[in-house]
Structure of 2-hydroxy-3-oxopropionate reductase:
Amino acid sequence: MEIGFIGLGLMGRPMAGHLLAAGHALHLWARRPETLEAWRDRAGVRLHGSAADVARYADLVFTVVADAPDVEQVTLGARGLAEGARPGLIVIDMSTIAPAAARDIGRRLEERGIEFLDAPVSGGETGAIDATLTIMVGGKQTVFERARPLLECLGQTITHIGPTGAGQVAKACNQILTAMGIAAVAEAFNFARASGVDPARVREALLGGFAASRILDAHGQRMLERNFRPGFKAWMHQKDLRIVMAEAQRLGLTLPGAAATTQLFNALVGSGGGEEDSIAVLKLLERLSGYSDHGNDPSP
């Protein structure tokens, strides 16, 4: 197929590479032209000067950008996808945005004869590189079935959740669980260390009981290694939690755990940790407990 791809960052770059490796022709545009340099002169890739130009050639376009205003600009703004789209174009947005924003963008694109799926992902940079992402999809079932073979190039667990916006609801649920899970593991490790007990031995024991989780396993190991290189940046998790709390306010819901965790991420980003991985919540808790970051041995 002729595939458009917009958003060649930490996640989008390897995802576009998988589609190219699967034999699809790629049509690329980027808001930062330097992002395209790595793709120049690659077989099967054509670079364009706008999102509208991408839409003129593509049968389906993926977008992976930061937030709802970016999705709206790329799809419906000046020289956006809608400006160049042929009837029947499918747009799959894999960004994480508010469910209401996804519904609005989907409705406005449909008015122009463009099909839309909201398909946010979980799995971080590693999942994007390994093509093992979890993909949560909202939109028409018929459009989802047409897009499924392409989604299977990018992920392992691909679920149609419901109508437009439902994928973003599922992603919000994911972000509640992962943020609180990361905060819980960080709290447990900080408690163990402050008590004079090796967190590595604690993790080893807990992985054999009901406290076991993928977060304790994978992120817990990275915390022990002090590996805060971003696979998913803290400021992005903060942004996603803001979406959760805004939706909770709109729905009149009480989400006490998510609210407390949001404050932790606000503090992490506000203290300069936004570009680190979200597991840097551990460092924030250590600082609040009077520890300094001295490699593998934070000490009072």
